Amino acid sequence: MTPPATSDTPPAGATAGRPDRLTVLIGADTFLPHVNGAARFAERLAAGLVARGHDVHVMAPSATHRAHGRFTEVIEGQPLTMHRLPSWRWYPHDWLTFVLPWMSKHHARRVLDEVKPDVVHIQSHIVIGRGLAREARKRGIPIVATNHVMAENIVDFTTLPPVLDKVVVKLAWDDAKRTLDMARAVTTPTRKAADFLEATIAIDGVVPVSCGIDASNYTPDLTPRDANRMVFVGRLTTEKQIDVVLHALARLDPALDVTFDIVGNGDQRRNLEQLVHQLGLDERVTFHGRTSDEELRAVLSRASVFVIASIAELQSIATMEAMASGLPIVAANAVALPHLVHDGENGYLFAPGDVDDLVGKLTAVLTATPEERLRMQQASLDGVKVHDMKRTLDTFEALYRGEPLPE
Q1: Looking at residues 279-288, what average pLDDT do you find?
Q2: Count of structural domains within the chain
Q3: Long-range contacts made by residues 381-385, C-beta under 8 angstroms, separation at least 24?
Q4: Distance, CA of 113 to CA of 129 (rounded, Å)
Q5: Cα separation of 308 and 350, whole Å?
Q6: CATH number of the structural domain spanning residue 294
Q7: Is the pLDDT of residue 8 over 50?
Q8: Which of 42, 178, 317, 341 has its CA 20 to 30 A from that of 231?
Q9: What is d(CA 288, CA 406) in angstroms, rounded to the nearest whole number?
Q10: Which of 289, 294, 318, 288 minimizes the C-alpha distance to 306?
């Protein structure tokens, strides 16, 4: 991987006579209608770039095998040029679609010839990003790569025995290095995630760039609560460890009368619903499924605490949304979550998988004095300011142009 360029490097779009307006081609293996953090980041990035006047094209899987082609889609309020590639359903997963790997270069050549981008930004090194990076390199087009992948995100859906999962993950990381080494710059959401990637595939100079959030879209309610409501937002998958939260809920003091709102869908929903019944929590847990943005903001605004037990977060947009909603956070002390949750300030960290520790930390939040609760809420609002989407867009524009990064 070559490091981000210095100020002596000409902007990516300068050769085309367009130093300000860039043509950016984003390659994303997951994008709407997929619902996950990586997809949300790609959507917000693309829309934010369009709002700044850039010509943005997105290569992404189609929702069904037949629904492919070039379309204009309104994403985050902005019109995006979408190149939907023929895709197939991955049946071990509840909604994932994927492009046939041996077709990725073919699709990349076609779209690159049509778009002629100033820069290519791949959102993964798996299928679309892998082929796109190789074809862009042949044409001398600068490549920026963002990594959102953790091993735990992959092995749940291989359907292979655990011993073979390890082999698959090793081969995947070896191939990831070959792809990421083609990039002008590699980014990932946090410094800890960057350290993880550098150590995993022996790559240097990974740039931490927050996924970013527009805090003005959320409505913090700093008034005292009339009930104790926990909330989680995200995919219902194994690495999220929502079962740990449910066991903790069952052990909380009944006098607290705590309820739990779960927003999102995933392959573990049925198992979690069964666990709720086994624990006798049917009247206290609500599965909302996928909601509108307005419904999500309403659930967050009325909650008492956001809880996340995940062990595979490279950042967690959902946690940032909760912070922007003025919520105290109780989170697993794993991967990048400690970058968002400062223990004793805007909430608490608990030992991953430790139900008793989680019970104690939840109890501390739910029994806090109004003054202590307000202090945690304000700390969340202050802490999310450094993840402002404007800063994220400024950084990627600099990377695209080969300019020095903003402070």
Answers
A1: 97
A2: 2
A3: 381/215, 381/220, 381/323, 381/324, 381/326, 383/323, 383/340, 383/342, 383/345, 383/346, 384/213, 384/215, 384/320, 384/323, 384/324, 385/215
A4: 16
A5: 10
A6: 3.40.50.2000
A7: no
A8: 42
A9: 40
A10: 318
Q: Are 234 and 240 in contact (CB under 8 A)?
A: yes
Tokens representing 206?
Answer: 């990974």
Which spans in 52-100 are helix H?
none
Provide the 3-class DSSP secondary structure of residue 400. helix
Which structure tokens are listed for 257?
A: 């009368």
Q: Are residues 246 and 353 in the same domain?
A: yes
Tokens of residue 179, six digits: 């792809």
| C-alpha span between 188 and 146 (Å, rounded) | 5
Asked whether residue 90 is assigned to any structural domain, the reply reads yes
Q: How far apart are CA 271 and CA 164, in angstroms?
A: 25
For residues 155 and 110, membership in a common domain is answered with: yes
Q: In this structure, is residue 9 part of a structural domain?
A: no
Contact of 288 with 311, CB cutoff 8 Å: no
What average pLDDT does the segment 46-54 reach? Answer: 96
Per the CB < 8 A criterion, the answer to whether 16 and 48 are in contact is no
Residues 154 and 222 in one domain: no
Inform me whether the pLDDT recorded for 12 exceeds 50: no
Q: Both 227 and 195 in a single domain?
A: no
User: Mapping DSSP to helix (H, G, I), strand (E, B) and coil, where does residue 265 land?
Assistant: coil
Instruction: Starting at the earlier edge strand, list the strands of the sheet with 119-122.
Output: 69-75, 78-85, 55-61, 23-27, 119-122, 143-146, 185-188, 207-208
Question: What is the model's pLDDT at position 158?
Answer: 55
Q: How many helices and strands, by DSSP H and E, does the chain display?
A: 14, 16
pTM of the model: 0.78
Task: Give the domain range for residue 366.
Answer: 215-386
